[in-house]
């Protein structure tokens, strides 16, 4: 050890700890258990339900409190799913937790990463992860900074060069002084920029929030007026008034729709987990299914960390080529992707002893050695080994004729030593073609997205030519439109490139984020894949973010989806699951909106019409369970691979209006008839319940088309359940037997409902199809 590298003394360490110059960072963490509970319990939806529950408890109407089960189920599903995701992410931590070797008081000792202080001398060797930003003060090494910069090539570091925290030593050994620790380090600063609450970009969530806000805005004034009116009609009977008011207000809030959404998304999450995809944010399943631009990182997404020799163009004895490659691979310590590909190709070939080996350097661009057979072998870039292009015209003509997107290196030999540099009498042996190994099925995955109309853009810190070659190999449309981002100087140039180019090389972390922002600004819905710290800002900004499990902690924690098996081929399955979820939720949500629409209209009507409200909360427990709850869950879990079209809110309201309109006409008609006849109030209420169930059942029939065995079974159970509830549990559900006049009235209204509903629904379907074509 150099005499200047005595490290810090114990007193100096204590002083720096007291000054806060220690390597403790506020890393990006998953949401705490406490916050998960707060976020799911403290909602407007829950608050309204608790108030209504308290009102029923106050007047002792306990059987009408069954609706609280929906609130509890909805909240529980949300909490359980988020905690499950949190635990899964926390278990995925793969960053090294090994002890770090530092020099203190003149000797080496091991400490944890969090105990490093500023100016500590850290001992780093092959395989070490750099724990803080450091300056090399002795030795040399080669560093893999791909998780930070996206650059896959190894970077040579000498005395005075900076080492960035989070990168790895791939070759060599050095002593480095920690100059930036904790929050001051490069990786920590990137992480800090990603520490903000990301707004969920979900059309379903926006639709539900819009509906709930409208309902809440209507609920309070209508509720107060309704209560006052019913209190007078019921001659001051508080219990009857509260029960009627709660029934009206409950119907305004599509609480079952929220439970349905949570449940269906939870089922989707379980299905994706079986496919090795971890979902950290429920609504991202929908977002991914809607994206029209997918930004891809090269290494880790399109390619593995491996390279393969695809061809060797021989220019001499083939056996000597195998020996030369095996020998260079044997004695080279520079185990980068290129050397590993050579080593794999030459496996089984005999190697010969080496007198002296000359490692690769960024200046010479070659490596080689003097071997026991009296020859020297060298391998590297053609223009650096064969400097006289005319003399070695055959080599360069061969290279020019290669059309494949490969990395090209040449192999040569000489009778002289390499000690004084490359000899003049060097002889070409072979041209070796090496290519990045694409991930299995990546071409199929790329083709899938192309067929779905999703634009693909490859964004990487590697050289633009390297990235472009990979893009071409995978079949990405527009791969010829490539740009080196070091040439982009203005925001205007960046925004233009974001829209017009498909391949981006030498991209900085800030530029990745700016490209995503530019695409979103142009009206695109953007998904981003990544695995490194350099991807964090862009991942956080994207509408949907996807990380590889083998990537950095920060990338995983800010992403909504994590591919546990690091397989990009899982993506089509996620998109398909999203489509099934959205299309089926759109179909099923109409069942819940029906009640919201007719309840609001009827509540306003009964404020001005001097009649008791015909419904109690217990009525909706029967009708809702069998004509809304059960059918909606069955329909929501059916296969559905259709492309998503149209506006979610428009589609569900359009499907709901025919049933809601028929229900309103029936109830108002019954109120008018009862007002001017001797029909008993209990019979009037019972017919209203029957007609409401019929309208809902008609909607189920139309939504279930085309029929299959499961849907027919569901329709049967629903119909039988309603009949059994009305016949055998009439008293519990506050229903009565109908008189002959009541049965005749019910029959006439049913015939009118069946005809009018189908006419209205057919017209609604035409409007929906027109809307879908508009939003293609």
Q: How many β-strands, per DSSP?
A: 21
Oligomer: single chain
Alpha carbon gyration radius: 35 Å
Overall mean pLDDT: 83
Shape: elongated
Taking the sheet with the most strands, its summary is:
8 strands, mixed
Q: How are strands sequenced across the largest beta sheet?
A: 8-21-20-19-9-16-18-17
Membrane topology: Multi-pass membrane protein
Keywords: Hydrolase, Membrane, Translocase, Transmembrane, Transmembrane helix
Organism: Ruminococcus bromii
Domain P-type ATPase A: 95-192
Please give a structural write-up.
- By secondary structure, the chain is α/β, with parallel strands linked by helices.
- Helices cover 51% and strands 16% of the residues.
- It is built from 26 helices and 21 strands.
- The strands form three sheets. An eight-stranded mixed beta sheet has the order 8-21-20-19-9-16-18-17, sandwiched between helices. Strands 1, 2, 3, 4, 5, 6 and 7 form a seven-stranded antiparallel beta sheet that branches. Strands 10-15-14-13-12-11 form a six-stranded antiparallel beta sheet, with helices on both faces.
- α23 packs antiparallel against α26 (740-774).
- The longest helix has 38 residues, at 571-608.
- It starts with 9 loop residues before the first helix and ends with a helix.
- The model is unreliable at 92-96 (pLDDT under 50).
- This is HAD family hydrolase.
- It comes from Ruminococcus bromii.
- The chain crosses the membrane at residues 41-59, 65-83, 208-228, 248-272, 589-611, 617-637, 649-672, 684-705, 712-737, 743-764.
- It is a multi-pass membrane protein.
- Residues 95-192 form the P-type ATPase A domain.
């Amino acid at each position: 050890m150099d005499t200047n590298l005595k490290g810090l003394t114990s007193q100096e360490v204590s002083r720096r700890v007291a000054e806060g110059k220690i390597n403790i960072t506020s890393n990006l963490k998953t949401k705490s258990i406490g916050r998960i509970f707060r976020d799911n319990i403290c909602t407007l939806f829950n608050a309204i339900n608790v108030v209504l529950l308290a009102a029923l408890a106050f007047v002792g109407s306990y059987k009408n409190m069954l609706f609280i089960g929906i609130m509890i189920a909805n909240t529980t599903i949300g909490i359980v799913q988020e905690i499950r995701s949190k635990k899964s992410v926390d278990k995925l931590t793969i960053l090294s937790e090994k002890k770090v070797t530092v020099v203190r008081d003149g000797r080496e000792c091991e400490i944890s990463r969090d105990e490093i202080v500023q100016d500590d001398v850290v001992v780093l060797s092959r395989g070490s992860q750099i724990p803080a930003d450091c300056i090399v003060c002795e030795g040399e090494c080669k560093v893999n900074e791909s998780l930070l910069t996206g650059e896959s090539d190894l970077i040579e570091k000498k005395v005075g060069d900076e080492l960035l925290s989070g990168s790895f030593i791939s070759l060599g050994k050095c002593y480095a002084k920690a100059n930036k620790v904790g929050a001051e380090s490069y990786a920590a600063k990137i992480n800090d920029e990603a520490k903000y609450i990301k707004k969920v970009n979900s059309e379903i969530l926006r639709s539900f929030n819009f509906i709930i806000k409208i309902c809440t805005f209507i609920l309070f004034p209508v509720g107060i007026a309704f209560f006052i009116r019913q209190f007078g009609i019921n001659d001051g009977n508080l219990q009857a008034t509260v029960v009627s008011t709660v029934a009206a207000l409950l119907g305004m809030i599509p609480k079952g729709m929220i439970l349905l959404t949570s449940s269906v998304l939870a089922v989707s999450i379980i299905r994706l987990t079986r496919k090795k995809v971890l979902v950290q944010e429920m609504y991202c399943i929908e977002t991914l299914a809607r994206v029209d631009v997918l930004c891809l990182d090269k290494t880790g997404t399109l390619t593995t960390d491996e390279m393969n020799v695809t061809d060797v163009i021989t220019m001499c004895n083939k056996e000597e080529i195998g020996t030369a490659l095996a020998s260079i691979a044997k004695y080279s310590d520079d185990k980068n992707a290129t050397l590993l590909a050579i080593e794999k190709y030459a496996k089984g070939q005999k190697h010969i002893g080496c007198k002296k080996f000359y490692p690769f350097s960024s200046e010479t661009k070659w490596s080689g050695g003097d071997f026991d057979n009296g020859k020297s072998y060298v391998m590297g870039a053609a223009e650096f080994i064969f400097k006289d292009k005319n003399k070695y015209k055959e080599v360069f003509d061969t290279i020019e004729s290669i059309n494949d997107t490969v990395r090209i290196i040449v192999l040569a030999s000489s009778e002289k030593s390499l000690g004084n540099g490359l000899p003049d009498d060097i002889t070409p042996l072979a041209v070796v073609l090496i290519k990045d190994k694409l991930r299995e099925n990546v071409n199929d995955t790329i083709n899938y997205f192309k067929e779905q109309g999703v634009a693909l853009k490859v964004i990487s810190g590697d050289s633009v030519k390297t990235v472009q070659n990979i893009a071409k190999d995978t079949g990405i449309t527009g791969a010829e439109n490539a740009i080196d981002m070091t040439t982009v100087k203005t925001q205007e140039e960046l925004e233009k490139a974001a829209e017009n180019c498909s391949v981006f090389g030498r991209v900085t972390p800030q530029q990745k984020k700016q490209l995503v922002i530019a695409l979103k600004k142009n009206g695109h819905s953007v998904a981003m894949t990544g695995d490194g710290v350099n991807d964090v800002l862009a991942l956080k900004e994207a509408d949907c973010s996807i990380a590889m499990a083998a990537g950095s902690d920060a990338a995983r924690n800010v992403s909504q989806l994590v591919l546990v098996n690091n397989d990009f081929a899982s993506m089509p399955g996620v998109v398909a699951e999203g489509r099934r979820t959205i299309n089926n939720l759109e179909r099923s949500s109409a069942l819940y909106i029906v009640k919201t629409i007719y309840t609001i209209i009827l509540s306003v009507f009964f404020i001005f019409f001097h009649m008791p409200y015909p419904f109690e909360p217990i009525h909706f427990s029967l009708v809702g369970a069998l004509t809304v709850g059960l059918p909606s869950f069955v329909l929501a879990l059916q296969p559905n691979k259709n492309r998503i079209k149209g506006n979610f809110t428009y589609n569900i309201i359009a499907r709901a209006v025919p049933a809601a309109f028929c229900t309103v006409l029936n109830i108002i008609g019954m109120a008018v008839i009862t007002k001017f006849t001797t029909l008993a109030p209990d019979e009037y209420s019972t017919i209203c319940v029957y007609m409401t169930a019929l309208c809902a059942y008609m909607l189920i029939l139309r939504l279930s088309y085309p029929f299959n065995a499961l849907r027919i079974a569901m329709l049967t159970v629903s119909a039988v359940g309603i009949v059994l509830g009305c016949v055998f549990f009439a008293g519990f559900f506050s229903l009565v037997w109908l008189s002959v006049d009541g049965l005749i009235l019910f029959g006439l209204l049913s015939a009118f409902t069946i005809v009018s509903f189908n006419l209205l629904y057919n017209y609604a379907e035409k409007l929906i199809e027109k809307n879908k074509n508009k939003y293609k």
